[in-house]
């Protein structure tokens, strides 16, 4: 009985000490902003639509092969509809960071990014996004990093090229918005708790002239001060690599 009593008191003491340490640690953490951000890497990038990997293949003459991409794009861009953005977000001054002061627990305002800015890649005029013509678009977006100000005052841009092989396999790419950059007014990001209506800015790449019936490896990279896009151990850090195959 004494032995059981001893171990009961001993383990209760350990549990109490652990709970106290956790309580003290949680007091030092903020639910709004990470305490330590010195190990956060520069931003990565992702593309949409993304279905079953980074090999995108379809035949123009077979709608069943490209319709899933079209549906995915409409679903993804629903949050960017012009009316939705006008109701939830505000118009901001282009070309400068949208820095918001006040208490960190206060809800932050978000800048409008309207779907119509993507023009030929918006799916507004052409509901098939160009897939029915063999001219598919892809949309790139930053991974969101709280407090990050990309480009050090200069907008980060996107470019695309053939990763390996003949550069003529990718003869034409259009970017939307027209300059192919992420405007500074959408940064910094304050986190999902306070930046409730925030929608990441997008850059659409419209592949209008790609070699048909051929696997074309494409690399789209971010370019700007502080951006890393040549690290072979991380294919998403500052770039995205995918293969495009368009059949007739």
UniProtKB/TrEMBL annotation:
Family: Belongs to the X(+)/potassium ATPases subunit beta family.
Keywords of the record: Ion transport, Membrane, Signal-anchor, Transmembrane, Transmembrane helix, Transport
Gene3D superfamilies in the cross-refs: Na, k-atpase alpha subunit
GO biological process, alphabetically ordered: potassium ion transport; regulation of DNA-templated transcription; sodium ion transport
Protein name from the UniProt record: Sodium/potassium-transporting ATPase subunit beta
Function: This is the non-catalytic component of the active enzyme, which catalyzes the hydrolysis of ATP coupled with the exchange of Na(+) and K(+) ions across the plasma membrane.
GO cellular component, one term: nuclear inner membrane
